[in-house]
TrEMBL record:
Keywords, in A-Z order: ATP-binding, Magnesium, Nucleotide-binding, Transferase, tRNA processing
Binding positions for ATP per the UniProt entry: 27-34
Organism, scientific name: Eiseniibacteriota bacterium
Name assigned to this protein: tRNA dimethylallyltransferase
Region (Interaction with substrate tRNA): 175-179
Gene name per UniProt: miaA
C-alpha cells in the first residue's frame, strides 16, 4: 500500500475569523448545554448550530440527547446529517458547520453553537488540518485484511506506526483501528500527528466566545446516572433492535457511540441488563471527565460558568447573555 512521506501539517487558521463573534456553549455530557442553549436562542430568535458527533447520526435518538420537541428541533442545525453506517469525520463536520453558518448569515439570522465534541470544535476553529479523503480501494483492502487476519494483527500494525493512537484503541474496535491505518497509509502521517497539529492552548481573548458549563462532580455524576436511566426507559433497547432488524450492521459506526455500544452487547446476549446499565453510566462519566480535561487545557480565555445544582437553565442562560456582544441586547463590548 502506497504511503506519502515527508508531509507537513499546518492547521487551517482561515476558519477562525468567520467564527470570531459566535457564542459557543460547551461542556461535558449531561451538564445541561441543550437547555441553556435553547433558552439563549429563544431570547435572541437565534439558530443553534449543534456540535455533537453523536447527534449528527440519523435514527440514533434515544441515547444522543437530541431535542425531543419539534419546536426545539426547528431551531437546531447539524442534527441527523449522516447515516449511522457512515464513519464520522471532524473535517466533514467542520465543512457542514461552515456551510450552515453561511446560510444563517445569508438569512440574517443570529446563531450560537452548542456541543461537547472537542475535536469537532478544534476543526471548526481551524486547529487541525482537514485530512484528505481516503481512497475507497484502500479502505476496502484494509477491511478485507481485517476479515482475514483479525483485529489483533491490525492492532499490532497500528502499534508499530502509531503507538499513541493504538494505546487508546481496543483490539476489537474495527472502526477506529481501520480509520487510523487508513490515515497512515493514505498520508504517511499517523492519526495522532494530525490531531497534534493544533497542539497547545488556543488563545480565545480575540474570540470566539466560548462558555464552558461546569458543575460539581457529584452533581454531574448524579445527572449522568439519571440521564442514562431515562434514555433506557425512553426505548433505547427497542431502537437498537429496530435498527438491527432493518439491516444495520452491529459494526456500524453509529453503534460505537456511548449508550449504543453497551446496550448492543445486551441485545446480542453478551451481558445482562444490570451490566449494560452500569457500563453505560461508567463510560458516560469517564467520557465527561475527558471532556472536562480537554476544555480546561485546550483554551486560554475560556469563560467558565459554574452551575449550582438547583439553578434553572434560564438563570444560567441569563448570566451568559449578559456577557454576549451588543447584538444580543445586553453588552456593547467587543469579544
Amino acid at each position: 500500500m502506497k504511503t506519502l512521506t515527508g508531509a507537513s501539517i499546518v492547521p487551517d487558521r482561515s476558519a477562525v475569523p468567520s467564527v470570531r463573534r459566535i457564542p459557543f456553549i460547551v461542556g461535558p455530557t449531561g451538564v445541561g448545554k441543550t437547555d441553556v442553549a435553547l433558552t439563549i436562542a429563544r431570547s435572541g430568535e437565534a439558530l443553534i448550530l449543534s456540535i455533537d458527533a453523536r447527534q449528527a447520526y440519523r435514527r440514533l435518538d434515544r441515547a444522543t440527547g437530541k431535542p425531543a420537541e419539534i419546536s426545539e428541533r426547528e431551531i437546531h442545525r447539524l442534527l441527523d446529517i449522516w447515516n449511522p453506517d457512515t464513519p464520522s469525520s471532524a473535517a466533514r463536520f467542520s465543512k457542514a458547520f461552515h456551510d450552515e453558518l453561511r446560510k444563517a448569515r445569508n438569512q440574517r439570522r443570529r446563531f450560537l453553537a452548542a456541543g461537547g465534541s472537542g475535536l469537532y470544535i478544534d476543526a471548526i476553529l481551524g486547529r487541525i488540518d482537514p485530512m484528505p479523503e481516503i481512497d475507497p480501494s484502500l479502505r476496502e483492502a484494509l477491511r478485507r485484511e481485517w476479515d482475514k487476519s483479525g483485529g489483533e494483527a491490525l492492532h499490532q500494525r497500528l502499534r508499530e506506526v502509531d503507538p499513541e493512537t493504538a494505546g487508546r484503541i481496543a483490539p476489537r474496535d474495527a472502526q477506529r483501528i481501520l480509520r487510523a491505518l487508513e490515515v497512515w497509509h493514505q498520508t504517511g502521517i499517523p492519526l495522532s500527528g494530525w490531531h497534534r497539529s493544533g497542539h497547545g492552548s488556543y488563545d480565545l481573548r480575540q474570540g470566539p466566545l466560548i462558555f464552558f458549563l461546569a458543575r460539581d462532580p457529584n452533581d454531574l455524576r448524579e445527572r449522568i446516572t439519571d440521564r442514562c436511566r431515562a434514555m433506557v426507559e425512553a426505548g433505547l433497547v427497542g431502537e437498537i433492535r429496530e435498527l438491527l432488524d432493518e439491516g444495520l450492521s452491529p459494526n456500524a459506526p453509529g453503534f460505537k457511540t456511548l449508550g449504543y455500544q453497551e446496550w448492543l452487547r445486551y441485545v446480542q446476549g453478551e451481558c445482562d441488563e444490570k451490566s449494560a446499565m452500569d457500563q453505560m453510566i461508567l463510560k458516560t462519566w469517564q467520557y465527561a471527565r475527558r471532556q472536562m480535561t480537554w476544555f480546561r487545557n485546550r483554551y486560554i480565555g475560556i469563560k467558565r460558568i459554574e452551575i449550582p445544582p438547583d439553578e434553572p437553565a434560564g438563570d444560567t442562560a441569563a448570566r451568559i447573555v449578559r456577557q454576549l456582544p451588543g447584538e444580543w441586547g445586553t453588552s456593547e463590548s467587543e469579544p
